[in-house]
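Researcher: Let's do a round of design. I'm pasting the structure tokens now; please hold your answer until I've finished.
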């Protein structure tokens, strides 16, 4: 069964900014021990210091398998256990029509925006299996559910993350491990949305049309963090293998 949040050790790759940092704040406020992971050491150490004495930071590039293995080992040593993994790794590539993308662009999208989710889950799996419990929460995108011009490659990657998480949920249940995906659309106040909405880009034109469809209001990082906190808690002990949209009503996905 899932531990109460205050008893957990929570590892957050991508936790130094945006959605990941909002998740870190939510878990820290609930009393969890939190370990942030990012490539920028200065930013990561500052974020961890801001969260308080129960927060730490590991500098690692989650696109590099050896660094992910080191990350998992150091996190387990720092926190004593890894109960929840929240992967919020963002994206390196912006939407673009397929014929305008090079084969190298596609390779980067898949190896830097998709593979790290798989690496991180695999790296923490032995620790979760040994303690007979854990939660994996992947932050993907509604692009994996809804076909959108310019998101053929991104959408394929996000769908892969969702399907991987479903498979992990089936494999992990015998060891008390749950796995779910959170899929936002536009998330205000994040570096990625700032890049998406930069004036004159292809992505800005697409998402400028989508923005008004969020009839329930814009989505902010704290909205996703609240769901992540719930999915890691005992209240969600029977929820696994799900891909849950948080998008303010942009779609009914």
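Researcher: That's everything. Go ahead.
Model: Designed sequence:
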């Amino acid at each position: 069964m899932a531990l109460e949040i205050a008893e957990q050790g929570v590892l957050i790759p991508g936790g130094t900014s945006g959605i990941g940092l909002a998740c870190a704040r939510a878990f820290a406020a609930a009393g969890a021990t939190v370990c942030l992971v990012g490539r920028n050491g200065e930013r990561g150490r500052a974020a961890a210091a801001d969260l308080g004495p129960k927060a730490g930071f590991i500098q690692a590039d989650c696109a590099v398998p050896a660094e992910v293995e080191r990350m998992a080992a150091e996190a387990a040593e720092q926190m004593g256990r890894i109960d929840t993994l929240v992967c919020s790794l963002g994206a390196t590539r912006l939407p673009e029509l397929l014929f305008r993308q090079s084969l190298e662009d596609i390779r980067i999208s898949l190896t830097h925006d998709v593979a790290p989710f798989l690496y991180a889950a695999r790296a923490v799996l032995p620790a979760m299996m040994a303690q007979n419990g854990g939660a994996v929460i992947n932050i993907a995108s509604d692009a994996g559910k809804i076909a959108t011009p310019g998101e053929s490659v991104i959408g394929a990657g996000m769908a892969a993350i969702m399907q991987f998480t479903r498979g992990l949920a089936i494999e992990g249940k015998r060891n008390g491990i749950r796995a779910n995906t959170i899929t936002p659309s536009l998330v205000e106040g994040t570096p990625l949305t700032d890049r998406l909405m930069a004036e004159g880009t292809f992505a800005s034109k697409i998402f400028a049309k989508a923005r008004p469809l969020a009839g329930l209001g814009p989505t902010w990082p704290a909205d996703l963090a609240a769901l992540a906190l719930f999915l890691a808690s005992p209240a969600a002990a029977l929820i696994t293998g799900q891909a849950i949209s948080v998008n303010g009503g942009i779609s009914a996905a």
